[in-house]
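retry 2 of 3: previous attempt timed out while embedding spermidine. Reduced batch size to 1 and resubmitted. Inputs unchanged:
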Amino acid sequence: MRHRYTLCVLILVALFIGNSDGQKKQLNVFTWAGYVSDDIREGFEKEYGVNVLIDTYASNEDLLAKLLAGATGYDIIMPSDYMVSILIKQNLLAELNRDNIPNFQNISPLFLGKYFDAENRYSIPYTFGTAGIAYDSSVVTPAPDSWTVLWDTQYKNQFSMLDDQRETIGAALKMLGYSLNTTDPNKIKAAKEKLIDQKPLVKQYKSEAEELLIAGDVVMAHCWSGDAFRATETRPTIRYVIPKEGSSQFIDAVCIPKSAPHKALAEQFLNYLLRPEVNAKITAFTKYGTCVPTAKEHLPEHLREHKFIYPPAEVLESLEWLKDPGDFTRHYNRAWEEIKAK
Ligand code: SPD
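retry 2 succeeded.
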């Protein structure tokens, strides 16, 4: 009898747990691969009694395409700088209510008021970084200092390029001495032809380049700084260089789509990310820079001023932000389609 009673209680408890879990709110996050760690996700889930579901994209254009196709389930997205401008223009972002994000005050002014959202009405910064070349110094010698190494036939099938139209066309533009944001069709054509020439040498177009570097599938990769940094943890011979012709720098932002099903919860998530101890976990995991100065107190010494995150002044001067080229975007789109179709 007693056993039967205990069994009933256990079944009721299990049903209750099952039910309450089934009723949990779900925060749907759409972001870059390797950007939100399990401890950040689980910390929020535990504290707020919700589930956090993470879906990933490989480029800003993939994110835009998904939103324009009518995806409405996302509560949080992480577009980069120029894509924030585009999403604002397309009326796809919700205005943030700062009263619900008191930790906004933790952000350094250095990362606020940028060209893509001058009053930060729609975005908060998540991380910052650069694009460059990651290479295995035990194989690639001498150490490269120019984008031209990605056209060197001796590395045929041994390197990858980002699967990202603005970054990859940007690398070719920079190699040719042009701006990342050119609106000259002849310059886009020249960059496109360079990339078509390069194509037989490229092992893969992949935005998660660290996976190829770690697996040893490539010895060199067009890569973002944090991902290169992460690769060094498994392969200490990997180095990262920003080519002398210059490259891109970026801020990846956190935004709430206008169509978000759980806007209030999304603002709580933003506020949570801006806690110094949580923000430090972002840098500890992604190896990109923190925009919350007090987060550094929670970071190990080597991550506070690492050269992958903080390039020297002369390198910084060579960097350019990607910007929204407006109607001219169709030239970038067409060039990218032609390159990928070859
Ligand atoms: N694995 C995380 C990659 C983050 C990349 N940010 C993209 C910037 C594009 N301009």
